[in-house]
Amino acid sequence: MIKEIGNTTDLYFDRISQVKSPKWSEGRAVIVGDAAYCATPIAGKGTDLAMSGAYILAGEISTANSYQEAFEAYENKIRPYVEKCQKLPPGIPKLVIQNPS
Fold first, then answer.
1. pLDDT tens-place values along the chain, 101 residues long
2. What's this model's pTM, rounded to 2 decimal places?
3. Which of 61, 32, 64 is nearest to 48 (CA)?
4. In the beta sheet, which residues pair with residue 29?
5. Does CATH place domain 2-86 in 3.40.1190.20?
6. Could you state, in order of their start, the residue ranges of all structural domains in the chain?
């Protein structure tokens, strides 16, 4: 397979990376899902986090007195879960990304 990679012209590789945003809102804008708390494709938590985040944000917007209050409550409620999900299991990414040598 590695030998054939050199023979193709339409193969694309990119690195797997994780960005941890210190803040998920600014002014009247707020982010959810992978834009806010991507746990990388290795973690397998993208849909779970996106749905949970959207649900919590909607709940906070519906009950808060202001969007600022809602955004702060949303982040305070979901950030501990996000940080737990962003921690990769032991041996990852080495187990998933192996050097072919």
1. 778 888 888 877 777 677 788 999 999 999 999 889 887 666 678 888 999 999 999 999 999 999 999 999 999 999 999 998 888 766 665 655 555 55
2. 0.73
3. 32
4. 26
5. no
6. 2-86
